[in-house]
Each structure stands twice: as C-alpha cells, then as structure tokens.
C-alpha cells in the first residue's frame, strides 16, 4: 500500500477512507542542505511577516524565513530536536503549499512531530489553544501560523507567517529581532526534499520512520477550552427563546467550521445562523460583498451590517425583515470580532469595557478579575471600569504580544517574582478582544462572552436583554467615550514617515487649536511592568484639557505602502448627552488632527479609506 501511495501524484494518505493511522519506513526523510543568500525586507510587523503572496511564492523566500526562525530557536536553546511543532493557517491562497514546505523543513531541522488541523486549518486563537491544551498541555515548543489575518487572500493579495512560542503567544520582540538578524546573514537552509506531501483532509497519524505528522479535528481543542470558560447550557436557554436570533458572519475565513460547530450545533442556533461559513482561499474574492477583505468592521462586513439594519456609517436603515437580535463577524484568521444587535453597533473599545464590567457573569471569572489592559489607541472606557472594580489596568503599545507578559505574570516558568495580574481581560480598538485562556485575541471567545452576559441578564430579567440594552445601562453608569478611527490606507510610506517625524518633534502643550486647549503631546513609550523591557516610538499622542485624545500611528499590518491610523476620542460624562452618533461627535477632533498633522499636504488624501 505504501509503495502505491508513495508513487501517486497526490499527497500521502489523501485518498479518502477512514484510516486513522498509516506507518512506513519507505519514505525519504533525509535532510538536505541547500545554499541560499539573504533576502532583504524579511522583518515582521506587529503580527508576523506579511508580504504579497507572489513574493512569498518566489523561491526561496519562505524557506529563508522559516530557517531563520529555526536558527533563532536553536540559538535560544528551544527544544527543537525531537520536539513537537504546530503548523496550520487560515486557509488563504498558497497555505496548502506553505504548510508542506514548513513540515519538510521542520523535520530537516530535527523536529520529531508536527501537528496540523484538518485541511491545514486552525484559527489563530485555536492554534494558541492547541499549543497550551492539546493532550497533556504545553507539548509543542511552538507553532507556525500561515496567515495575514484580516488582509485579503489570493495570488495578487497578501500572505503571512507568524511564529508562536511554547506559551501559545506570539514571539516577543527580542526573539523576532534575532530572527531578523538571521535573515540578513543566512547562507543555507535545511529541507527533507525527498519527503512526499502528506494529506491533511481527514484526522490521521502518519508514522514516517522516526518522524510523525498528526492531523486532528481543527475545532475540538478550542471548543473544549471554551466550554471551560462559559456555561453553554445557560447560553442555550437564551438561544432557544422565541425572540432571539443570531447571525455569525465568518466572511469566508477560517472561523466558518468553528461557527457552525459552536453556534449551530453546540448552542442550538437555527441552521444557517453561521453565514459565509465555508473557508475560501480568497475569502470570497473580489465578487463578494466585502471584496475578499475579511475584516469585521462597518466598512467591510457589509452583508452582516445590512442584515442588522445599519449602513457603513452605523446609521439605521430599513430592512426587508426584522434584523436578528444578535450579530457578529470574524476576520480571516478568526482572532477579531465585531458585535451588534438589531440596528445597533458597539465599538470594540466599549465592548472591552462592557465585558470587563460584567465579568462576574462569566464562569471563567467566578473567582474575580485581577487585571485588564488595552492598547494605547483604544479608548479609556475600560480604565473607568477598572477604577471602580479596584483592579489594575494597563495601557500597552498596539500588538497582542504586549499583553502576553501580563498574562504570564507570576508564572513560575517565566516570571516567578512578579505580581500576578490574572485572571485577565484585554483588548484593542482594532476589533480584538480576549483573556488569559489563550495568548491570542479570540473572536469566538468575545462572541461567547457577550452571549454569556446576555444570557445571564436575560435569565435574571425574565425577558431577552440585548447588546443595546447593556450598552445604554453601561453609559448611564460610566459615561460614554465617543470614539472613531480613520484609516488612510496605501499612502506613500516615506511621506507618511515624514509626517510622523514632524509631529514627534512638535511641542504644542498649552496651545489652542480651533478653540480646544491642548494639555500635552508626546510619543508613546511603554515600559513592560513584568520584564522591564522598553518599547519606544509607539504612536503620537495629543491630549486635551477636557480629556479628549488624538492619536496617530503607522500600522504594522499592511503590505502595500503605509496605513496611517488616526484615533479620535471624546468623553461625555454620565450626566451628559449619551445618545449622539459617535462619528459625528468626533468630527471636530478630526478637523483639529488634520490641521496639526497636515495629513492632506503630506499624503494628498482628502478622506479616510475606512472609518470604524
């Protein structure tokens, strides 16, 4: 049988059937050393290395980077030899080929066992769950995630790769810096070039001499962990209420199998509640309503937004039938989330604050919450909640890796002598929310957190409580942080950098612009309270005497050109007008920001590409 399989053009084992294990010594796992030379520009951004797909496909671009990672791991004495490595991705174009290359390189570099999700699919949070929880837990030394997150997928679009460590979290800066150093001096890479591709379409274990590839159900580990965090039975009771309905739009990304399994099968939502749930390598492509841009916000998640009775500005529109009671969307790799109720959108900053405020209703936090955190551009809404709860609240740079040390605080393996900040909830204004159950933002966790809160409140009230109900009660207690983000995508990078440099050199505290007095301005710098590391140049802050803020950042997740992100925040106390449209409230701040930055002069842009 193995002789037949090895001679076929299709991958090993990729022939259907129900075999759960195949073993052979009749495959070539000999490592080959291939000469190469450095390729410029292989520097990861805030969430891995992202480039145009065709650049990754250009041999040996991927090979060089993967080998640089392995070289770094060995320099740091990570137990690669004989160890277990997770390799999967979000299903975007060329994922299947990249995974096979990484498997062959992993074995050539001494890895003994590779774990893959079925069809090579694992959401980013599920990958973290697999590293932390599969089998006895913490078995792998790390994992490769083939994803460019919310960026479009396809031969003319984007590809990415990210390495996560043994704690399930993204590699810290000190590790990625070493990887970049290796990309600049690499002379060879190792690969088992004689090893056939392995089939990933069904759960199966391949014994390839001394090497092993295990393919497992992509949903099972993440689901098992989420069941420990939430009371599924209580949520099911709400889902069964006659006036409850749900739409979860996966936007043809990797979340589809998870949404079908969890929302429809486990929680009992009506068939079809999980929409666009078949993962596609182009995330639906140019002909989809979102043009293949699987990014859960008002601009791109247009199908869901329309279903929920809103337009891309968050304004109410007429619908053919009543909108569902609850709506959510995920991005390409399922780490982001958007939350809505009927004709109502809750901003990610408010969503974070409201989850923290209601954490006592979530079983995961039955013993209390000890800490929370937000990225610097995220609104200060959660700070007000933390102050009332009497818990620590941290302001970090953008990038989930900065939350990792806080989650591992007091861990005897990493930081035994530091204060413990867990249980812990954190989030970013860029539609990322999560907790310390994994070391990635987790779109499904955020959706279940909201469903848990609504289920508990509905049970107590004896009627359905909605996201809008929770939001309005929250604002009555804490006031409202009106907030918006303007994205200027694909601008000339040198011009954007020049603009940021000019602003970093300004000293405008004590001055007034368009009638608003500036308290201070600075360039945000973060000292990690756990390991003491310092991250500089993390964005421009302009803070006004009334507490309003303007933030400028250059995004680290784009591929073509640069993306300037402009964040606008104005606080309204509980005694003020809480019912305004958030985008209208911050328009005066936008005008001030454009005057100070001279963005139009530097970029030629009159309007942002996206407002969220």
Through-space gap between termini: 56 Å
Largest sheet properties: 8 strands, mixed
In what order do the strands lie side by side in the largest sheet? Answer: 1-9-10-5-4-6-7-3
Mean pLDDT: 94
Count all strands and give the number: 28
The secondary-structure class comes to alpha/beta
Q: What multimeric state do the chains show?
A: single chain
Q: Portion of residues in helices?
A: 25-40%
Principal-axis shape equals globular
Share of β-strand residues: 15-25%
Number of helical stretches of at least 4 residues:
19
State Rg: 24 Å
Residue windows where pLDDT falls under 50 for at least 5 positions: 1-10
Present the secondary structure layout.
Elements: H1 2-7, E1 21-24, E2 32-35, E3 49-52, H2 53-57, H3 61-75, E4 84-89, H4 95-108, E5 113-117, H5 124-133, E6 142-146, E7 158-164, H6 173-183, E8 188-191, E9 204-208, E10 211-216, H7 220-229, H8 232-239, E11 246-249, H9 255-266, E12 274-275, H10 302-307, E13 326-330, E14 337-341, E15 344-346, H11 348-357, E16 371-375, H12 381-389, E17 392-396, H13 401-407, E18 424-428, E19 432-435, H14 443-461, H15 467-478, E20 480-491, H16 493-504, E21 512-513, E22 516-523, E23 526-527, E24 534-535, E25 540-544, E26 549-554, E27 562-572, H17 582-585, H18 587-597, H19 599-603, E28 610-611
Parallel strand pairs: 1-9, 4-5, 4-6, 5-10, 11-12, 11-13, 16-17, 16-18
Antiparallel strand pairs: 2-8, 3-7, 6-7, 9-10, 13-14, 14-15, 18-19, 20-27, 20-28, 21-22, 22-25, 23-24, 25-26, 26-27
Helix pairs in contact: 3-4, 3-6, 8-14, 11-12
